[in-house]
Amino acid sequence: MRPFERRLITLCSAALLAAAPARALAVGAEEDAKTLFARGRELRSAGQCDQAVIAFRSALEIYPEGLGALRNIAECEEELGRYASARRDWWDLRRAALQSNEAKYAGWTEDAEARYRALGSKVGTLTVRLKGAEGKPPVQVVLDGKPLDPRLLGVELERDLGAHTVELFYGGAAPIAERAELAPGARQVVTLTVPAPLPARDAPSAPSASGTPPSGIRMGGYVALGVGGAGAIATVVALAVRAGALSAVEDGCSPAGGGAYECPPSLQGDYDTGKTASTLASVFAGVGLVGIGAGVTLLLLSPSEPTPPAPGKPAAELVLTPTPGGLGSRLLVRF
Question: Taking residues 142-146, what's their average pLDDT?
Answer without folding.
Answer: 95
